[in-house]
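Pipeline run #58 for the internal structure catalog. This entry was flagged by the ingest filter as a single-chain record with no existing model, so it goes straight to prediction. Upstream metadata was stripped on purpose; only the residue string is passed forward. Reviewer on rotation: M.T. Logging verbosity set to normal.
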Amino acid sequence: VLYNASVYKDVQGNVLGVFAAARDITARRQAEAERETLDQRLRDQQFYTRSLIESSVDALITTDPRGIITDLNRQIEALTGCTRDELIGAEFKNYFTDPARAAAAIELALSMRKIIDYELTVRARDGKTTVVSCNATTFYDRNRTLQGVFVAARVMTRSALTQN
């Protein structure tokens, strides 16, 4: 019950009584509890999904249709030597030895809806290069509106395989 009360007085300020109102808020409390349960399920699902993304041995990147990085996992941070904050919002093509070929990968994925075994060479901040084999596909929201490209880059350079 939600209970509200106030005193009412006469013109001289003498208390004449109390006005009180009580309202049953059982349904509201149940709705709040259900919402909290759903919010917790959503947080658990997001944690689970992020855990899967981070556990991949491949570097995972999503871009918008323009080739701007929207999400990634730690593997791509390790390959580039850049932080998540530096990578998100940056152009995908800027982290490869051949930016035009990297941009073409995004364009091919958009036009063909997927590409398989597309070889690129990542250039890390320190100048180190790593050959990767990219598989990419387009992804959509629940209304089937194109959201961008999902890229999985598997390291092909032997030395990088033993270091990561």
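catalog note: The helical segments are 26-55, 74-80, 84-87, 99-112, 158-163.
catalog note: DSSP finds five helices and seven strands in the chain.
status: ready for reviewer M.T.
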